[in-house]
Design a protein that fits this description.
By secondary structure, the protein is of the alpha+beta class. It has seven helices and nine strands. The protein has one domain: 2-Layer Sandwich (Beta Polymerase, domain 2), CATH 3.30.460.40.
Length: 155
């Protein structure tokens, strides 16, 4: 069995270099913020105008979309598959389970930029990352919200 050849930092670097408006969300964002959680995939929230550019850079990493751009926009989401699994949300806005909307453009304006040494990475502000966890409200999301609120209190 061979391990993945996916280079996470190179992927983050390619996203930043392409000028794609993409926010890393989910547990991978939490890990990079220093929260002790485990995850096996990547989750991005992407500007609906940047689907083609995101897919083009993903091809260089042998990641292939499950839907063409127009279908992804219509569905509001798609997956990049290859050595890694990348869930991609492409919606102008998404609402929490209790109906509180979060617009991508607002989250993008409030984003934090993480310096990873060889790459920079855009993640939502802590408040917006917490809001993204309220979209599904699974038990794991509730636990993640507690961890993110503790991180917010420690800052």
């Amino acid at each position: 069995m061979e391990g993945s050849t996916f280079d996470e930092v190179a992927f983050f670097r390619a996203v930043a270099a392409a000028g794609v408006r993409a926010l890393l969300i989910g547990r991978r964002a939490m890990v990079l913020l220093g929260v002790p959680v485990m995850t096996a995939d990547y989750d991005y929230w992407l500007s609906i105008d940047d689907v083609e550019r995101f897919n083009a850079l993903a091809r260089a990493f042998e990641l292939h979309p499950t839907h063409p751009p127009d279908a992804a926009r219509a569905r509001g989401r798609y997956v990049l598959e290859g050595d890694e699994h990348v869930d991609v949300l492409v919606a102008r806005r998404q609402s929490t389970r209790d109906g509180v909307p979060l617009a991508f453009d607002d989250a993008w304006a409030r984003r934090e930029t993480l310096d990873l040494g060889d790459a920079t990475l855009a993640v939502p502000s802590l408040d917006d990352l917490i809001a993204t966890k309220r979209w599904s409200m699974r038990p794991r999301d509730l636990a993640d919200i507690e961890l993110l609120e503790a991180l917010r209190g420690a800052r």
